[in-house]
Amino acid sequence: MAGNRGVVYLGPNKVEVQDIDDPKFEDPHGRKIEHAVILKVVSTNICGSDQHMVRGRTTAPAGLVLGHEITGEVIEAGADVEMLKKGDIVSVPFNVACGRCRTCKSGDTGVCLHVNDSRAGGAYGYVDMGGWIGGQARYVTVPYADFNLLKFPDRDQALAKIRDLTMLSDILPTGFHGAIKAGVGVGSVAYVAGAGPVGLAAAASCQILGAAVTMIGDFNAERLAHAEKMGFVPVDLSKHDRLGEMIAEVVGVPEVDAAIDAVGFEARGHSGGEQPAIVLNQMMEITRAAGSIGIPGLYVTEDPGAVDEAAKVGSLSLRLGLGWAKAQSFHTGQTPVLRYNRQLMMAILHGRLPIADIVNAKIISLDEAPSGYQNFDKGAAVKYVLDPHDMLRAA
Prior knowledge:
By secondary structure, the chain is α/β, with parallel strands linked by helices. Helices cover 28% and strands 23% of the residues. The protein has 16 helices and 18 strands.
């Protein structure tokens, strides 16, 4: 390894690319581990979840190395790693999971009970998720490698499709999980709240699952224009605050079979001010009786910048009685990436899911990460992909 560098959170609205420690075969407590690999990072993406931290909307500490969307090349393997070797190109689920606890064995790897001392679930480079060092860097350690990593079957094929395959670490499985939990299937009428990268991935998932109509709502005109270009029906939320009426203009009735919240806790209302529960309440209003709502959008337990004291501890004003009366189903939480990433990889490799174009992937260098964060925060209709070793541009 020729010197590691990574994207470091320094405080609200400030990130910087700095020299960081080279990865070691250690867990966050400094204990030696042999079930890990060290990766040369091929690609690593800026995520909306990262943006919440960078805005200062979490309790993330200064000095945190960011990045949980990682694709890499194995350059060193621990003594206990049996199924991976040097040179393998792999996708890293953003979930850190041990593969041995009760939840991992049931496939719920988003809430592993072993990798985080403070709560269920671990992730790389994220607040309160176990202290695992992030992968917006040149090199990174990945534990429990045999269990966690998805090896691409052919190196040359993987590098040729790397813009698409980099989305397997988080946003594509997250969008797919939202669509699955919303009950999307053949002939469904679906609505996705939020036309950012996760929302676009959810909309793409609705299409591949057979939805008859996939609507996507946002205030951002640039993002809506891109969504329409990709074949989704845009819903311009700036027109008025009656979402059901806008849906009726598309499908004839003010309801949908399936709804997906890809916005999360920083949601804004028609007036422009923050209303952290507005999307959830809208989902209950527009989803049909006995319909389902998938909630891949992030909701946090601590939000220092919330609009009121209740929201600062994740307590939102939900009209739950409406959802109960309509017998609706809700599903929240971290996506268990391993449940979906292999089949989504196959869809990509065989030309069924051009996800990089759908989310408008833009490749930038690692050193350009701070400007990427700034532009993404302004609502740029792109998904920034960092290229730490110039391998993507070469491919």
